[in-house]
Design goal:
With about 450 residues, the chain is α+β, with helices and mostly antiparallel strands. It is built from ten helices and eight strands. The chain has a four-stranded antiparallel beta sheet with strand order 2-5-7-8, with no helix packed on it. It has a two-stranded parallel sheet with strand order 1-6. Strands 3-4 form a two-stranded antiparallel ribbon.
């Protein structure tokens, strides 16, 4: 009975391990975005940066709160320091000196200190800077999320593009293979020239080459997508959305008609954050000209003995306590503080220039992203129309070729035109998805 239970347990463990090693993932585009925002390596790092910034903020705050420290010092004077005194104090001859050792061999000092910062302009500025410091990493996290979202959308579209391309190439291959087989039979019967067969063989070889290359691209695209999501590269992955559905869902010109607001853009917010940091650095340099005030309270015990008997009940401990206030007033620094203040002013002016530059760059980026999105929609309509035309032309040429009314060159040219139109149509769908993602990134419309 125990043996059967052990075998069953081991079998269950092995099955669970196998499932864990071969975990299957299935994502729609929105599910993939949500998963990546939590598991992408960059997302994890930026989250940790925020955690560190929060602790840094508390570290800065704690510097102005009460500080308590305690210490115990033990000193063993195995050779006491000696001094000299006039020998006549001890009955000696005038003019002579006698060696005298002061102190005890064992000394112990136990001390506790309470200190409190009362006023320091640098501390006040540091508190403000710690909030800005935290805000910077929160903005960096948001920027990382927008970039991850765009990367997931692009990677998702690339996988779908490769899958759809393979499906079309497989279909073209099957159709052309049948046409080639029929043409070879016709050639054997002496009804057409060998050139017709050879032309179809060339086209079929090209399809096989493209099919092999696209399969390799699909493998690379899947691995890139897995890396973006933060899942193992050898995991099984299924994409539930279809390229056609995603492209039609993104055919929304209302987004490009929306007015662009700089305040919603994360790059602009980070530029504002940078300017705020430089403003605080200037305030910090100015605050160093203000006096600072601190107080401290000390309480402790001293013990002295020629023998190490400090744990004895008979040991005498001498207590002491004091209260101190420290006032530091900067008076003259040989214009060193002034030089640092001027440097901070220049840095602030540079930050303001950078903010203006960012405004102009973002406006240009918005106009370009808007134009590319609108063009992708136009291109989609054009490529769809061209595909329909190419399909009709190819069918007509196939009928003519079969009936001997058209040459193999004309038929092959119609096929190549169809294959090109198919790829252009697929790429136009991906372009709609990608250009809309770029426009949403700059407008912060998710």
């Amino acid at each position: 009975m125990k043996k059967n239970f052990l075998l069953t347990f081991l079998l269950l463990v092995s099955v669970l391990q196998a499932q864990e090693q071969n975990q299957n993932y299935s994502f729609s585009l929105n599910q993939a975005i949500d998963y990546a925002l939590e598991h992408n390596y960059s997302s994890i790092r930026t989250s940790k940066d925020i955690d560190v910034a929060k602790q840094k903020k508390w570290e800065t705050t704690a510097a102005g709160l009460p500080q308590i420290n305690a210490s115990v010092d033990y000193q063993n004077n195995f050779e006491l320091q000696k001094s000299v005194v006039p020998a006549e104090f001890f009955g000696g001859n005038p003019g002579e000196f006698a060696e005298v050792a002061f102190g005890t061999r064992h000394n112990v000092i136990a001390n506790s200190r309470l200190s409190q910062l009362i006023f320091d302009g640098s501390y006040i500025v540091a508190l403000q800077a710690s909030k800005t410091y935290l805000k910077f990493f929160e903005n960096a996290k948001q920027k990382s999320n927008t970039e991850i979202r765009e990367m997931v959308i692009n990677a998702y579209g690339n996988v779908l593009l490769a899958e759809e391309s393979i499906a079309i190439l497989e279909k073209n291959k099957a159709t052309l293979s049948k046409t080639l087989s029929d043409t070879e039979e016709t050639f054997k019967n002496g009804l057409i020239e060998e050139e017709n067969v050879e032309q179809l063989q060339i086209t079929l070889a090209s399809i096989n080459s493209n099919l092999s290359n696209t399969k390799r691209l699909l493998d690379v695209s899947r691995k890139m997508f897995k890396f973006t999501l933060g899942i193992p590269l050898d995991a099984e992955l299924t994409l539930t959305d279809k390229l056609d559905n995603l492209s039609r869902a993104n055919l929304d010109l209302n987004l490009s008609a929306t007015a662009f607001s700089l305040d919603n853009n994360i790059d602009y917010q980070m530029a504002q954050n940078f300017e705020e940091q430089r403003t605080l650095e200037l305030k910090l340099e100015k605050s160093k000209a203000l006096p600072s005030l601190a107080a401290n309270l000390n309480f402790g015990y001293n013990a002295f003995n020629d023998k190490f008997a400090f744990l004895s009940q008979n040991q005498s401990w001498l207590n002491y306590s004091n209260l101190g206030i420290s006032l530091n007033v900067p008076i003259f620094s040989s214009f060193g503080r002034k030089a640092k203040t001027q440097q901070a002013k220049i840095a602030l002016e540079q930050a303001k220039i950078q903010l203006t530059e960012t405004e102009q760059q973002l406006q240009l980026q918005f106009e370009r992203a808007k134009s590319e999105f609108e063009f992708s929609i136009e291109e989609f309509a054009t490529s769809k129309s061209n595909l329909n035309l190419a399909e009709r032309i190819e069918k007509k040429q196939q009928v003519k070729f079969t009936e001997g009314l058209s040459s193999s060159f004309d038929f092959s040219e119609a096929q190549r035109q169809l294959y090109s139109a198919q790829q252009n149509y697929l790429q136009s769908m991906v372009n709609i998805i990608n250009t809309k993602a770029a426009l949403e990134k700059i407008t912060n419309k998710n």
